[in-house]
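Researcher: Please translate sequence to structure tokens.
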Amino acid sequence: MGECRPLGFLIGLPFAFVAVIFSLVGALVWVLGTVLSCLCPCCICCVGAVKLSVSLLKLPIKILRWFTEKIPC
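Model: Translation complete:
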């Protein structure tokens, strides 16, 4: 799958670095949302924040895959 696409990986690294920063923010939001949902289970907005943070945690992998797919073989 990624045998002949090393340039896509290298070009995507700066964007993946930004995505890693977003994922760290997502991890912080996830921890805070989990603590808040345990303290007050009636806060439905905490569930949305936790779902958003999980998508932020997966962002670096998605960006690297997207870049490697865009580079032709």
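Researcher: Any highlights?
Model: Residues 14-62 form one domain.
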